[in-house]
């Protein structure tokens, strides 16, 4: 029996290596995290017309996401109600009906069972088709066009689940004119646990100058970024964690990095847009526009602004994931600019991207080494900047003072632990009003314990 309390410190500051490769923990994650969290499905722009669909995964459950006749979006399990065969094999397309290849049962785009071969002759009026539609994902909602689904009908709304993270997301998802994805997504398999890229994107700017040093040098990055020799001059950015394990790192030191170096017109376009955002949101929030941001929406949906990649880390057992990669762009950008950004993103973070390959080596080694019986009993740490976390008036969440820190790691793993322990969303809700105080006071307690030693 897994002792969850032993896996993760209460403040998220250390984790037992077993979490990166253990079938029992993985099964619990499927039940308590993936069957209860809001999971990214698609962007509305990927399924604009009635009958447009994509096939994707929610945890290990395969689903079809379909645009309905009334304009809404629904999602269904992609498993036939007769004997469970896969109903839809294509990754995306447009359909009037989904027909199971095994015995030919046909389902409408609303998931209802419409046609059963030889129904009259074989079932003789005894099959109630109205109760044999595809199983529905009970909650599907869109946040500024980004569509998420949740299997747990007692979960908070998507807006509540994103919570204070929305304060940051809305800068570019809303005030800047909105964002969209360029698809279809590229797909690749990585031999790593789903949490390793999720934690990397939620809070790891520390690795950038080291892991990506050679690639950044080739791309002409500023010298301070190479080999982690020094922090940037001036503003060193922020780490932020918000309720429900979401988080981001922000580097304010100068525009969309690699893209800006080759495309001054992108910088100019964003400078113009910045004035509009400042009028709407004020100067504090406008700082979060047009800078480097890495982020994870808990549990497995990550993105980077500045290098414009949008990722979904789909679990495939404890030691493997399928990576889905889209380019994320601002909706109102000229088409030519969007297409240059997509080329640049694929060069860096596509399946064979320069930076993707650097990261993949680390993600696979962390996972595969954690199979070792002795290794997995040990603990890894996310304690950088612990004790300096604080709350900033007017800025939601718990904030760390430098983009290179591990504040967002701790928020991610604190909530991961909370979800594994909680029996229901009601139990999780009970922690809503105290989570940040708890995170801060735990941090301070740990600091004082360390000082006593
Ligand atoms: Fe689908 Fe039989 S399993 S029709
Ligand atoms: Fe990286």
UniProtKB/TrEMBL annotation:
InterPro entries in alphabetical order: ARHD_Rieske_2Fe_2S, RHO_NdoB-like_C, Rieske_2Fe-2S, Rieske_2Fe-2S_sf, Ring_hydroxy_dOase_asu_C_dom, Rng_hydr_dOase-A
Record-linked SUPFAM superfamilies: Bet v1-like, ISP domain
Protein origin, superkingdom: Bacteria
Pfam hit, one: Ring_hydroxyl_A
GO molecular function, one term: dioxygenase activity
Keywords for the protein's UniProt record, in alphabetical order: 2Fe-2S, Aromatic hydrocarbons catabolism, Dioxygenase, Iron, Iron-sulfur, Metal-binding, NAD, Oxidoreductase
Start and end residues of each Rieske domain: 38-148
Gene3D superfamilies xrefs: Naphthalene 1,2-dioxygenase Alpha Subunit, Chain A, domain 1 (3.90.380.10), Rieske [2Fe-2S] iron-sulphur domain (2.102.10.10)
Protein family membership: Belongs to the bacterial ring-hydroxylating dioxygenase alpha subunit family.
Protein name from the UniProt record: Phenylpropionate dioxygenase-like ring-hydroxylating dioxygenase large terminal subunit
Species whose genome carries this gene: Novosphingobium hassiacum
